[in-house]
Amino acid sequence: MSPLGAVSDTLVTTYLQMTDGSEFCPAYLYYHDGIKVMCMDTPDVAFYRFLYTSVGKPWGWRDRLSHSDEEIEALLKAPGTSVHVLYVNGVPAGYIELAKRREGAGGRFESTKIDYFGLRPSYIGRGLGKHLLSHGIAYAWNKGTQRLWVHTSNLDGPYALNNYIKRGFKVYRVEEKPMPESYF
After folding, report:
1. What is this structure's pTM?
2. How far apart are CA 68 and CA 22, in angstroms?
């Protein structure tokens, strides 16, 4: 259940995209010496599970909880997948997971999806999310993506949608459906 209180009876999912790097409006925190973002170059399933659970639990993330270690390792090793961990004074504070794939007829262009993005609860509200999101967006464009996209919902953090829009994403679809029973 969302930490914001009672769950709505409607799940609202907003899809956003950025189709040109010139749309990107970065917001880095240059004044904080203790911030570092590192790519998880070696898949570490236990560490990934820690990140996924500690970031996602307040928002009801459950997609990957039922995956076996082998399935998680395969996801992390998939070509085009990268996990970037934000550290604050040496402590993991959040992460962004990117998945780059070929799209279109005959795989004619590169598309990158932000699969997961978020902060551990004690790091929310300090501007760290915009810094981490900016890092992920810059990484995707630097790796040659031609489209960057994400979806968020009314079950995600209260700043998520606004952060995406402020970084340059544009809404291209909004879906509403009854809230799945598993969220009540």
Report:
1. 0.92
2. 39
Host domain of residue 171: 10-183
Report how many domains make up the chain. Answer: 1
Q: Which stretches of the chain are assigned E, i.e. beta strand? A: 10-18, 35-39, 81-88, 91-103, 109-119, 147-153, 170-178
Contact between 8 and 153 under an 8 Å Cβ cutoff? The reply is: no
CATH at 14: 3.40.630.30
Mean pLDDT of 170-175: 98
Which 3 state secondary structure label does DSSP give 151?
A: strand
Q: Residue 47 has which token pair?
A: 């560490």
What is the DSSP pairing of strand 170-178 with strand 147-153? unpaired
Torsion sign over Cα 93, 150, 14, 17: positive
Residues in the chain: 184
In this prediction, residue 184 carries a pLDDT of: 66
